[in-house]
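We treat protein structure as text, and this decision shapes the records that our systems exchange. Because each token names a local backbone shape, the row as a whole describes the fold. For reference, a complete record is included directly beneath this paragraph.
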Amino acid sequence: MVGIWKKLFGSTQVIDAGIAAGDALFFTNEEKAEWKLRLLKAYEPFKIAQRWLALLMTTPFMLLHIVAGLQLAIVGWLEPVLGKRVDEAARVLIEMNNDALAYPVGVILTFYFGCGAAEGIIRQIQEKKQKDT
């Protein structure tokens, strides 16, 4: 039988290509699982980049707020002794920190936590659709 097709098309490569194309039209569960693993493997650098961005931006932002908060607490204790307000430097530090880093840190944290949340929501919607059908 293959001999007839070979004579007709001149090669079994055409037949093999046709069979491969037909097979590629339908995904089995194993193929879907394999593609999902490939996709997760491709996302690994993206996840590492998310973690680095989150750590590199939130650490100084939080440390500056902690330092300013400690400064305000210490100054609050010393204010009755000194008899004047000396907490203006800490307030300026907090304002500068918020002006410089609040927006980038907010975007990065939204990027970091929002992608996982969006993925979970999409997964739940897909599971609900599968249950409904």
